[in-house]
């Protein structure tokens, strides 16, 4: 469990009985519609929904600190920033 200050009325806060965090947003994004490559987001627990992946819980520290990661939109920006590529092909 990640401790967070505040209550249900606190910006980026969480809530729950006896100040124990049981409710709160798991995904947030800030959109700049004038420049789609300036989008940012935060998500818990991580980039991957696959247990065992190194990205399964990698975003939790950012979420806990109220920090954001780039949410890239344009193909050129995505390809420039990509660290890995997963290609899925149907079985023949």
Structure characterization notes:
- It is a single chain.
- This protein is mostly loops.
- The chain has helices at 60-64, 75-81, and strands spanning 27-30, 40-43, 69-70.
- Strands 1-2-3 form a three-stranded antiparallel β-sheet.
- The chain has a domain at 25-81.
What string gives the helices and strands in order? EEHEH
Low-confidence stretches: none
The count of β-strands is 3
Report the span from N to C terminus. 45 Å
Lateral strand order in the biggest sheet = 1-2-3
Given helix and strand content, the structural type is little secondary structure
Name the average pLDDT.
80
> What share of the residues lie within helices?
10-25%
Q: How many H/I helices?
A: 2
Largest sheet: 3 strands, antiparallel
Portion in strands: 5-15%
Nearest-angstrom radius of gyration?
16 Å
Give the overall shape.
flat
In short:
The chain has two helices and three strands. The protein is low in regular secondary structure and 92 residues long.
């Amino acid at each position: 469990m990640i401790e967070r200050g505040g209550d249900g009325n606190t910006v980026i806060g969480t809530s729950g009985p006896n100040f124990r965090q049981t409710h709160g947003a798991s995904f947030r994004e800030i959109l700049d519609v004038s420049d789609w490559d300036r989008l940012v987001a935060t998500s818990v627990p991580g980039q991957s929904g696959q247990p065992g992946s190194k990205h399964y819980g990698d975003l939790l520290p950012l979420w806990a600190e109220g920090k954001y990661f780039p949410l890239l939109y344009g193909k050129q920006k995505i390809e420039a920033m990509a660290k890995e590529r997963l290609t899925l092909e149907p079985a023949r």
